[in-house]
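Task 17 of the worksheet. Students: predict the tertiary structure of the chain below and write it out as structure tokens. Keep your answer in the requested format; marks are given for formatting as well as content.
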Amino acid sequence: MKDIQKRELIRSIKLIQSLGCSYRIITPDGESFGELHIVEPTFKKHRRSRKYPYGALTEHVRKHINFDVAIGEVQEIPCEDFHLEMLRASACALLTRKWGADTYTTAGRGDRIEVLRAVGAE
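Model answer:
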């Protein structure tokens, strides 16, 4: 830190002290002024634990769906070990990407999901 910078810093510190404020200043050189306790920030990503491995639901849907099916045909996706609504959500996301919104209908039936292609993707 240059002399002029240090002189202005000390002048600023005197002003802060005269106001009765708590402070902690750390210069780029690592010199520290003030008595305020600093807690180092900890950045921790909180990820939700997955019930199934990444991509397992989509892979299962892809195995059971023919994307070139004719309009009006019904396909079935067996749930096997997957939770029905989670599998259905994955199927809907994939079908929307492939065919578009409002081009199919799904229904959960016990241990399977039925998919009806309603209209062609245009």
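Marker's comment: The mean pLDDT is 89. The CA atoms of residues 16 and 56 lie 59 Å apart.
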